């Protein structure tokens, strides 16, 4: 029999196994219990107080919205098992919008017909919300909501929970909780109703909140209704008496469907009041957008499925537009209903379509259900939802937030409850930006600092030049900057530079490395101008390295960069230039080109061995850019650099060569290859016109055989050269590990 049914389903074109279909219908049916229960409570939340005579229209609008949202989003969502509908946060905002509309209309004209205006307002708001969501989805601007400061989002949602609590009190007692209405809450019957609702909320918390079982919430709500009627029966209260005492709702005779787009309604609509309600309208849009994003993320986590965020915004926007056109109001994907459907086995859009079908059926059965629905059951559900939001965003968030952020959240809650959502959001964003600026200003903008005696360029220099740099390296002071520089962090940088120059009065070159800087705020230019002024007064040259185009443009526009500020592409070249300036100042005006003989005498300590070495070397003159040896060639010689400069080049991933080391006059290269006879591991290229003397491998072998003393001295010199280079490398590593 089952096989026959499955065959018929496949023949009908569904292509789905019967088991999958039944699971989708079962999951959709379970989610429908929540949709119906929530829908009735949201109807009472929105159409309460002055709008209570029009509850039948509110029930119709609720289940029209539930059906459209569930059906459209189920078909178009990237999560096919998604269940959507009005949410507590969106319903609370919609209720505030409706009550504000009624208050303003009755203040102007107590006899004005409020229902057509309210329905048009809800419809326009829902359509605008849908359009905004579609724009967010198509432009990917929906992700921008993730940049809203967390305390603002938390304060917004906590205030929403507070407003749901206040709405629950109005649903249960029929009175708003205000100072002017406190006398109504002294009545014992009113107190009993509130106590019963609070007891229902406690039961929900103690059972379903902790277990989160699949069918827990529907069973508890149905059980609450049955228990209430048992208590009424034991107390001798009939259904009519319970309704008369306010324990249950007075059902409307029927659900009345009324499209908002009537000629008379549009003609008499108070459009001026709509402008005054723009703040609440924006709040509805913001809540729906944030709820759609946050709920989608929550469903992803709960079901371990990935959603297409842009697609979710687009389909939610389309569903809201259709809902508004047909007289519904806003909504989005629901975490609780979607997870309930998923846990019940629902995996396809048929579950959402089941919810849509049952929501449409409720347009017929809702009045009957309301007649048997105790107020404290739905009111308790609203109290639970509001208290759960307050607990999540006020109690639990305290563990996640710093004291400053938490105080900001509380302030935003108070502002929203007292002056409205727009004031709360705007002031919250200001508070969030201020808090962020203060926090960011505490981040050290200096990754590490160095001076020329411990951190040098890769250019190999003679012992005499190294001695000069060791003695006068403090003339070069460098700062490796990081993060984003703005008025706060830039001012701290200025204070650091002032203290640095006070500690090192010998400083003549101040190097700033911008490699790790992500950006410079225009307000930071003032601090850099102060740094420039302090450096100019002491005769210090500023050198800027790794300056990005946008940063350079900003500093030039503030006239910080001028002729007396040097800009270098790399730190190595900048250090080399500073070192050359220092060496030129301290070498004097004597003959800078020492003879080859004098150099070899200093190396070997003997004129006789220097003469022999000269005879065994071959003079080589190269021009700038000439390749002396190539990587991979046999190491059959070494080079003494008498004049000029050569670079050690290695290939990069894109086929280009990059310099890893540079060697100047009175230095050597290739000595280790000459000893080990391993192939060249780098290309050596002349950077400027240079004069070198080449000692071939054959001549070196002849020296080892014919002149053992000279051979020993050369090997000792090679060891000293490698030791100096190793010492420099160790110091460099030490600086980079700071």
TrEMBL record:
Record's bilayer topology term: Multi-pass membrane protein
Annotated keywords: Membrane, Transmembrane, Transmembrane helix
Pfam families, per database record: cNMP_binding, STAS, Sulfate_transp
This protein's GO CC annotations: membrane
Domain Cyclic nucleotide-binding: 606-703
Primary localisation category: membrane
Gene3D superfamilies: Jelly Rolls, STAS domain
Ranges where the STAS domain occurs: 479-578
Family annotation (SMART domains): cNMP (SM00100)
Keyword Transmembrane helix included in the entry's annotation: yes
Membrane-spanning residues: 25-47, 54-83, 114-136, 148-169, 189-208, 215-234, 278-297, 348-370, 376-395, 407-431
Keyword set includes Transmembrane helix: yes
Annotated localization: Membrane
Name of this protein: Sulfate permease, SulP family
Organism of provenance: Bradyrhizobium erythrophlei
């Amino acid at each position: 029999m089952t096989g026959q049914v499955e065959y018929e389903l496949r023949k009908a074109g569904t292509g789905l196994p019967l088991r999958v279909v039944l699971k989708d219908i079962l999951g959709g049916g379970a989610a429908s219990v929540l949709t119906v229960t929530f829908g009735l409570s949201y109807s009472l939340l929105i159409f309460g107080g002055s709008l209570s005579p029009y509850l039948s229209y509110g029930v119709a609008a609720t289940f029209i919205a539930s059906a459209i949202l569930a059906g459209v989003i189920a078909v178009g969502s990237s999560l096919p098992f998604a269940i959507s509908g009005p949410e507590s946060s969106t319903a609370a905002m919609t209720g505030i919008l409706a009550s504000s509309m009624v208050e303003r209309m009755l203040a102007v004209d107590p006899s004005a017909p409020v229902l057509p205006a309210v329905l048009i307002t809800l419809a326009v708001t829902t359509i605008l919300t849908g359009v905004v969501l579609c724009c967010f989805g198509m432009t990917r601007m929906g992700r921008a909501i993730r940049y809203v400061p967390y305390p603002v989002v938390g304060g917004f949602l906590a205030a929403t929970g507070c407003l749901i609590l206040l709405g629950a009190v109005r649903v249960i007692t029929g009175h708003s909780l205000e100072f002017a209405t406190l006398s109504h809450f002294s009545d014992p019957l009113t107190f009993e109703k509130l106590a019963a609702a609070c007891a229902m909320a406690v039961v929900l918390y103690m059972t379903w909140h902790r277990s989160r079982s699949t069918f827990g919430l529907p069973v508890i709500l149905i059980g609450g209704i049955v228990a209430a009627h048992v208590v009424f029966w034991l107390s001798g209260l009939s259904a009519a008496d319970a309704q008369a005492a306010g324990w249950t709702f007075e059902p409307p005779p029927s659900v009345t469907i009324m499209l908002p787009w009537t000629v008379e309604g549009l003609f008499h609509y108070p459009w001026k009041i709509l402008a005054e309600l723009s703040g609440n309208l924006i709040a509805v849009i913001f809540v729906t957008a944030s709820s759609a994003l946050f709920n989608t993320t929550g469903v992803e986590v709960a079901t371990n499925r990935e959603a297409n965020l842009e697609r979710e915004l687009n389909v939610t926007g389309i569903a809201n537009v259709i809902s508004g056109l047909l007289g519904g109001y806003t909504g989005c994907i629901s975490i609780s209903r979607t997870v309930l459907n998923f846990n019940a086995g629902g995996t396809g859009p048929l579950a959402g379509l089941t919810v849509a079908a049952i929501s449409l059926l409720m347009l017929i059965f809702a009045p009957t259900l309301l007649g048997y629905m105790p107020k404290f059951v739905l009111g308790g559900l609203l109290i639970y939802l509001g208290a759960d939001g307050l607990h999540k965003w006020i109690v639990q968030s305290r563990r996640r937030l710093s004291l400053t952020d938490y105080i900001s959240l509380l302030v935003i809650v108070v502002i929203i409850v007292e002056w409205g959502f727009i004031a709360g959001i705007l002031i919250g964003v200001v508070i969030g930006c201020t808090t962020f600026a203060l926090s960011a200003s505490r981040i050290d903008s200096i990754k590490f600092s160095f001076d020329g005696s411990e951190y040098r360029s890769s250019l190999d220099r003679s012992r005499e030049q190294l001695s000069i740099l060791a003695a006068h390296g403090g003339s070069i002071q460098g700062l490796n900057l990081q993060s984003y520089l703005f008025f706060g962090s830039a001012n701290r940088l200025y204070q650091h530079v002032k203290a640095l120059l006070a500690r090192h009065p010998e400083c003549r070159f101040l190097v700033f490395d911008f490699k790790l800087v992500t950006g410079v705020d225009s307000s930071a230019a003032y601090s850099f101008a102060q740094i420039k002024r302090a450096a100019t007064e002491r005769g210090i040259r500023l050198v800027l390295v790794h300056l990005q185009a946008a940063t350079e443009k900003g500093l030039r526009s503030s006239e910080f960069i001028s002729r007396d500020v040097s800009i270098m592409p790399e730190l190595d070249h900048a250090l080399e230039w500073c070192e050359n300036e220092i060496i030129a100042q301290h070498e004097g005006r004597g003959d800078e080109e020492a003879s080859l003989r004098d150099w070899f005498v200093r190396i070997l300590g003997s004129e006789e061995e220097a003469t022999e070495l000269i005879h065994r070397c071959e003079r080589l003159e190269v021009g700038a850019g000439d390749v002396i040896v190539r990587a991979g060639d046999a190491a059959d010689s070494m080079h003494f650099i008498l004049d000029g400069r050569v670079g050690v080049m290695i290939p990069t991933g894109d086929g280009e060569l990059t310099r890893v080391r540079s060697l100047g006059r009175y230095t050597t290269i290739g000595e280790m290859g000459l000893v080990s006879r391993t192939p060249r591991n780098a290309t050596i290229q002349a950077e400027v016109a240079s004069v070198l003397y080449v000692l071939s491998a054959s001549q070196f072998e002849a020296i080892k055989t014919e002149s053992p003393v000279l051979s020993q001295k050369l090997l000792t010199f090679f060891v000293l050269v490698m030791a100096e280079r190793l010492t420099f490398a160790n110091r460099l590593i030490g600086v980079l590990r700071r």
